[in-house]
Amino acid sequence: MPSDIKDIALAADGMLRIEWAGMKMPVLDMIEERFKKELPFNGVTIACCLHVTTETANLMRVLRAGGATVGLCASNPLSTQDAAAAAIARDMGVSVFAIHGEDRETYYKHIHSIMDMKPVITIDDGADLVSTLHKEGQSLLPNMLGGTEETTTGVVRLRSMAKSGALRYPVIAVNDADTKHLFDNRYGTGQSTLDGIIRATNRLVAGTDFVVCGYGWCGRGAAMRASGLGARVIVIEVDPVKALEAAMDGYTVMPIEKAASIGDFFVTATGDINVIRGEHFKLMKDGAIICNTGHFDIELELDALEKMSVEKRQIRDSVGEFKLQDGRRIYLLAEGRLVNLSAAEGHPSSVMDMSFANQALCAEYLVKHKGDLALGVHPVPLEIDRHIASMKLEAMGISIDTLTEEQVEYLAAWETGT
Ligand code: ADE
Fold first, then answer.
1. Which bin fits 397, alpha (ψ -120 to 50), beta or left (φ > 0)?
2. In this structure, are residues 253 and 234 in contact, taking their beta carbons and an 8 Å threshold?
């Protein structure tokens, strides 16, 4: 298979890691069994722009079992696990274009490489593939069955494409499924963000002031896990309802201007630009640690930090030291890119099991409903979302109750009141 990866010799190690991740992906296993029999993707080419990890490798195996021709490129230059990329390319019959640390030019060259495979379905994480395809691959548009989108940032971008009339095929917002964001964004980001911070710094979190910017599902997860490790958590929000939730969840809520001089750790999870800016870096304590767990590296105003600094050095892997004029030092993790995927390995496989089950089943849905869906962003069909929850419960050995007939009737009736 044509591929561009770091080193094929890493494939054996990659396969072991993929097997390890796969042990906690039972829902994907169930889907794979059915796909092997039904081959829903026979004759279908799928282009995937995803974090190239061991979990993604397990999605690749399921798409291939369904008969798809698959191309895979990275959705972030720093999240590629080169061993996983090598194993997917060598042993899974997938064309892989992803190298850890690739520059911007290579990143987009790789997106073009999977577009060259003439896909009819896109599976995207952040919407770089969809936006590039709409700008520079318009000849593909007439044959597209549709796409799926993994992350909040991507869904926001796609909605704005749809609003301006630019989106030319239907896309399913996988992120918005309950079995995706309630687990992946909350428990996945929660654990992997703290994992990334700890792997990068080996600092103690207990007893520190830990500032989380954004109280969406990712911010909630990070706040919950930092609190669990013994930090005093401060939440920064712009939405009054979310701010209220954070306050009632037991966190201190304040503006970033006030939190800047208090925090030991700062994590952004908002999806928006320049959330922590030059004026805030100026107020920070010596040794403050800043990082981002949102999709793009735009949440920290890094240009301002560069300009304010008189000296800069890499003090350990994933930790950049910026010395300010008065001698104070600020530590930036993973160059401001997704700390959970750059300094750690992303979400654990048991949550990616559900996220990627959504991807596989929504891709199948696009094939089955060819031509039925209008242009625009669509929710994951409820039956898929609930089916995934049921499969996960079954795999976890958890059984639940069902309504009695009397209860069904009661819920359907309006006559009975006080
Ligand atoms: N996004 C977050 N964590 C991930 C993982 N482990 N694999 C692929 N995409 C991810």
1. left
2. yes
Distance from Cα 56 to the centre of ligand 1, integer Å: 7
Task: Give me 169's structure tokens.
Answer: 């095929």
Question: Mutual orientation of helices 26-38 and 54-65 as an angle, nearest 10°?
Answer: 20
Verify whether ligand 1 is closer than 6 Å to residue 55 (CB atom). Answer: yes
Top mutation candidate among 17, 189, 191, 347 for ligand 1, by most atoms within 8 Å of CB: 347
The domain ranges of the chain are 8-180+347-395, 188-342
What's the CA gap between 305 and 24, in Å, rounded? Answer: 41
Give yes or no on whether 8-180+347-395 and 188-342 have one common fold: yes
CB of 362 closer than 6 A to ligand 1?
no
CATH topology of domain 188-342: Rossmann fold (3.40.50)
Cα–Cα dist 325/305, whole Å:
11
8-180+347-395: which CATH topology?
Answer: Rossmann fold (3.40.50)
Per-residue pLDDT of the chain (418 residues; tens, 9 = 90+): 899 999 999 999 999 999 999 999 999 999 999 999 999 999 999 999 999 999 999 999 999 999 999 999 999 999 999 999 999 999 999 999 999 999 999 999 999 999 999 999 999 999 999 999 999 999 999 999 999 999 999 999 999 999 999 999 999 999 999 999 999 999 999 999 999 999 999 999 999 999 999 999 999 999 999 999 999 999 999 999 999 999 999 999 999 999 999 999 999 999 999 999 999 999 999 999 999 999 999 999 999 999 999 999 999 999 999 999 999 999 999 999 999 999 999 999 999 999 999 999 999 999 999 999 999 999 999 999 999 999 999 999 999 999 999 999 999 998 878 7
Please indicate whether residue 56, judged by its CB atom, sits closer than 6 Å to ligand 1.
Answer: yes
The Cα 43–Cα 143 span in angstroms is 13
Cβ of 58 closer than 6 Å to ligand 1, yes or no, is no
Say if ligand 1 is within 6 A of residue 51 CB.
Answer: yes
From the DSSP assignment, how many helices (H) and strands (E) are in the chain? 18, 15
- Ligand 1 centroid to Cα of residue 26, in Å, is 17
